[in-house]
Amino acid sequence: MALIGLVDNLVGMIAARAGLWQFHFLRAAMALAFLAVAAPLLGLSLRPRRVWAAALRGSFIAISMLFYFGALSFMSVAEASAGMFTAPIFVMAITVLVLRQRVPMLNVAAGLIAFCGALLVLQPDVTGGTLARLMPLGGAFFYACGAVVTRRLCAQEGTLALLTAFFTALLIIGAVGAAGLAMSATAAADGADGFMLRAWGPMTPTLWWLIAAQAVGSVIGVGLLTRAYLLAEAPYVAVFEYVLLIFASAWTWVLWGQALNGTAWLGIGLIFGSGLLLARAERRSRPHIGT
User: Which pairs count as long-range contacts for 103-111, CB under 8 Å and 24+ apart, including other chains?
Assistant: First the structure.
């Protein structure tokens, strides 16, 4: 979480120099090259057992990252992450409305608390034209779709295989988006404001290093998180994911001198509390094995 919070803070610098689609294409290409080198060393396969299921999951997660990283051009990592942590409530909605399964009330309460906390952090102004600040919630929805697909269709897939499918989907989406902007000749604002609509721009040594650091840091961070889920019970590891909000805020303050206000910290507290409730609910749902 500390590493992910750091490398995601680099996106603000990237947004001022490149376009969202260019960033995703290059980031995905670098990540895939990194995985291609790492897989033989670890003795693991990059090929999923069911290509279509891994591709579906990868596409949902890739779309969620478009929302998340697009939001980073005008809000901090802590704020965007707060919106993404509402994914559990969308998972519950999909579970109830689409899969027709029951959800424990404790899970529902935790999801609603997280949603309220995210609104306190994002503080959208519905009358002032800043509804774009709700973009992380859109990212959370597609992330939740990916989570549901992961549980139901990809439970037997390897970690590197799923990462490969995700970055491949991101590579394709980045290429299509960049090509579309190049053909449309859409005008983009200067600096970070033009991140989402900027066509392919010149690559400088600084930009190469920033995107490479973001790509490698993301793969390592996600890999460490995946390893943690293999070493410990999921409810306990899941709670530590919420520490990203604290690390992201700390890195934002160290790198940019930006601090969250009291209302935002209250929202982070609610989100963190919802994580504790979800862990408690998950622990209750698991059978206890005594000795």
Answer: 104/281, 104/284, 104/285, 106/277, 106/280, 106/281, 106/284, 107/277, 107/278, 107/281, 109/277, 110/274, 110/275, 110/277, 110/278, 110/281, 111/86, 111/274
